[in-house]
Amino acid sequence: MPFVLPALPFAMDALSPHISANTLSFHHGKHHQAYVTNLNGLIEGSELADKSLEDIILATAGKADKAGIFNNAAQTWNHTFFWNSLSPTPQEPSSTVLTLINQAFGSIDKFKEEFKKAGATQFGSGWAWLIQRKDGKLEIVKTSNAETPLTTDATPLLTCDVWEHAYYLDYQNRRTDFLQVFVDHLINWDFVAANLKSL
Ligand code: MN3
Predict the structure, then answer these.
(1) Residues 92, 84: contact at Cβ < 8 Å?
(2) Separation of 136 CA from ligand 1 center, angstroms?
(3) pLDDT, tens digit, for every residue of 122-148?
(4) CA of 72 to the centre of ligand 1 (A)
(5) What are phi and psi of 87, to 5 degrees?
């Protein structure tokens, strides 16, 4: 079965004014859709055609001759994870999440600073992530282009897309302003809590 673009988990205007309906309509309806369409075209009739998205990502990661499939599969997965990382209503971290944040970063404000820094210093296109290591500790990492922590033994908890298409219509070149809005207004802390692995 071909992959299908998942519906956004909120209305197109639900994140306004932080992320406009105009940005979301292009980002979801054009960019995310293109990754899904490209992926379906690339795997059609191949041994990957009946595999899960996660299995396709793992099977093609790091293989130069499969870069096209990896890029489109990982971007399909990363974008769905990004939509779920966003909340239309302000949220606070649960006590469990807050304890882990404080252990790893010292405070929620320090977490926000480090997350913003990761996104701002990702040269070119990519992603900022909050991940959970195998020992349970939280960490912030950044990845280039389509790269995703899904291919490591860490558990992704939260992501912010820092490709220009994620923010340019609303913030132009001001990626840091977009990241500030993300950490202050948009984080879906319930999603972070749901992604924590039980130790
Ligand atoms: Mn994007």
Answers:
(1) no
(2) 28
(3) 999 999 999 999 999 999 999 999 999
(4) 11
(5) -120, 130
Separation CA 74–CA 53 (nearest Å): 8
How does pLDDT run across 64-95, given as a tens digit for each residue?
999 999 999 999 999 999 999 999 999 999 99
Residues with CB under 5 A from ligand 1 (ion): 161, 163, 166
Under 8 Å between Cβ of 196 and 136? no
pTM beyond 0.90, yes or no:
yes
User: Measuring CA to CA, which residue among 146, 156, 15 is closest to residue 81?
Assistant: 156
- Rounded to the nearest 5 percent, the helix, strand and coil shares of the chain are 55, 10, 35
What is d(CA 165, CA 176) in angstroms, rounded to the nearest whole number? 14
Longest dimension (CA), the chain: 51
